[in-house]
Input
Amino acid sequence: MSKKTHSNPLEGRLWQALRTKLSLVLTRYPAYLFAAMIFCMVISAVWVFSARRADINMAAFESPRPRFMLLDTLGAKLPSFAETYGALNRVLALQAEIGALIEKDSLSSSDSIALIGALDKFESLQRSMQPKNNLP
Output
């Protein structure tokens, strides 16, 4: 009887040879492969953040959105942040002053005037920090 011939006798040996070559390269040059992997990741990150993305639905006459739109909006809101921070510091100072005056056993006339003045400043700060459209 004759032997059975396989249709592709190299298929099993080819994958086995590739696996042994790959394991040999991995064990022999791990530092170079690690550096190549890091290099590919850096190149990929640079490409992702630097590639321009065009909107498919955007008409030809429309200008693209600004790249630093977040920075523009933050720059526009920065003065309001500073005003809010300053108002918060003034409120904390007024609260400390009012707390110190309230903790006294007896108030003199100057303490009463200082307390009324601090409460008036507190109320005016509260009114100034409300949005313009919500004022009664």
Notes: The mean pLDDT is 77. Residues 87 and 94 are 10 Å apart (CA to CA). The chain has two domains: 10-50, 69-131.
